[in-house]
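Support case: user asked for a sample of complex input and structure output to validate their parser. Sending the pair below.
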Amino acid sequence: MFYWSLKTLFAEPVRLMVSALAVAVSFILVIFFSAVFEGESEQMIVYLEEMEADVWVMQKGVSNMHMASSMVWDWKADRIAQMPEVKEVAAILYFNGAVKIGGKDWFSYVIGVSPEQPRTGPWAIAQGKAIPGPGEAIIPDVISRLTGVGIGDEITLVDRPLRVVGLSRDTFSMASSIVFVAREDLGDMLDAEEQFSYIMVYAEPGVSAQALAERIKQEIDKINALTSETFIDSDRQLAVQMGAEIVRMMTMIGTLLATLIVAFTAYSLIARKKQELAIARALGFGNGQIYLAALSQSVVVTLLGLLFALLISFTLLAWLPTVVPQVNLAVRLHQFTSIAVVTLPVAILASLSAARTVARLDPMTVFHQ
Amino acid sequence: MKPEYILQANSLNKCFGRGDALVRAVENVSLEIKRGEMVLIMGPSGSGKTTLLSMLGALLSPTSGQIAIDGTDISAMKAAALAALRAQKLGFVFQAFNLLEALTVEENILFPARLTTAGIQGARGRLDELLQRLGLIARRNALPNTLSGGEKQRVAIARALINQPPIILADEPTGNLDSHKGQEVMMILHDIARDDGCSVLMVTHDPRVEEIADRVLWLEDGALRDRKSEQHSWVIDPVCGMRVDEWTASVTTEYNDKKFVFCSSRCLSRFTAQPAHYIDETMHRVPG
């Protein structure tokens, strides 16, 4: 029966391809949505990763950068810098809010950079200056492309006009882009001239980040010190928590859609071949063998759908960023493995629709013309 | 020692529906078929022939009564055991050929061989023999939709014979064939019974088969009785000119208030397309 089911399936290649492509579309939806989510999540922590600090110091009770507010007195940065285990410190002021660029509000991480600490600024510049001075800003090159706002144009941070002096790379995200301004401007705006939001600590060689974080917490009052790894994980978890439900729902919808498509394909194949299945039963094939034939058809359609989905996804994911630069896509192995894992349950679930038809097959059908 | 009768039915009854809607399709039928015997079941349309054949073929459970195939009572058998029995003991030939469209001639014939312990490889020799015997060597890789009606039925017969069952059950095997091809199929089935010792139980309306059959059973209103040979009413099929028994024929039509009888539905469709072309008053009825 397995041979029959495969031959029957491949005897109608157009129908098979259409079914497999329909399954592929639903899988692609899941892969694409997951890739967008992964891409955006990665982009949310890109600044933390690029700074390559060993320890991040922030206000007590704060353990994130995303959707968080932190204020630490600047003398605390000096105290940390004097610790023997510390090689270097860098500090930023940070504001999480909308920046008006080209008439549109862009939700952004606004980083206040001191000119003497260039490492806290953009790590890749597409055009213009790397460090903003007073009254200046560096915006993501993607926003520049999307809005037409370029070097020399004006943007607004809350009520403060700033002139664009540079375009940075890899700093755009649909959820929160990174805009660099002078610490002086941001301090003035937030009334925090003597404060920082986050202090990045770089340890002397051989010093453990965990031990340093503990030591800083012991030495300095009313602060929180986290290793870079913990701090990044904490922000990543926040991003995942924010999007996990949506991703889970989209995955479920995509999987359900794939199941329905495979079920419809399996059912229609079985329904159209009812006469042949009745012949098989008359000739001596049992219900189990006939059901396995239906199941094998579902598995083949689902696997073909998965294969198409992977091929199309790889092509699309490589090509899309060049056409739609505002979309951050990240492809991880687990996105494909999770789809592959659901393939068999999808096929089995889908073939249940055919099982009922198989169970009700009337072998007397063979006598009908 | 093998039992004398390959197929025995005792007091078979089959009812459909219940209450006022109860229909007795087969009523108290008993029959015995010997090895190598060719037996026809004839009767008017709706007389229960196919229902009886389905029960004898272990495809339909009787409401009451017993069936024994090759000495084994199948009445209490479960579905899986019945399926295995069909694969080993029975071969089916249908009016509609019922070939599997995606499979080639060779694959169609070998299809039931998967159910035997020897499997497909074990049936290869038998396949070649059947292809040779039924004149299908040149068509072994053809798909069913490229075959003529006669070829399709020969493939169906080969499929029925591949597992060397002791019984062939044939339901109107010539119903979709013209008279020449029908005759050819009948002779093949006759040879199978004579040469292979395979019993052939056939439901048919084709009176020509009577001449080569060992016995004719007449089923009417669900009850079976032996058919008396003098109960014929011979007429001529206006399309092919074959002699047809008006009493048993099921392929009939009326045209200009006259009844016309045909040997097959193929002749009927030709007649329906051009009735005036085939009407010949003098040829319509001849003495029996």
